[in-house]
Request: fold
Amino acid sequence: MTERRCKHGMISLAAIACTAIGCVSVPTPLNLTSLDPAADQRKIADYYRQDALFLRLKAREMAERIVTYQGLFGAESEWVNGARLLEQFYENTAKDQDHQTLLHLSIADDRRAWSIDRRPSLHPSGQVK
Reply:
């Protein structure tokens, strides 16, 4: 009898777990190209800001490699030229990400300003305008 209760308890527990897992919603991915003010523009801007930071770190790494490669292969070697091109690429891409950050922050700020401007205000007589 106890075995039977344990078995039914395990089945019930499994059913509850499956139901709970099924009810959990997966968040929708962030559309990084969205210029819609209703989208979470601050989160999009933060993504671009973090990406720019990462790219600048990669550019700095390439600058250190340039120095190392110059010592090993000479200033005009293909290794040095390749590292220079990568450094420039990372830095230019970081600048592009900075521009995207500012764009999305400005959309977020415009939306915030719009919502503040649209709030009902009290007229001196005490009535809502």
Remarks:
- The helical segments are 2-23, 41-73, 78-117.
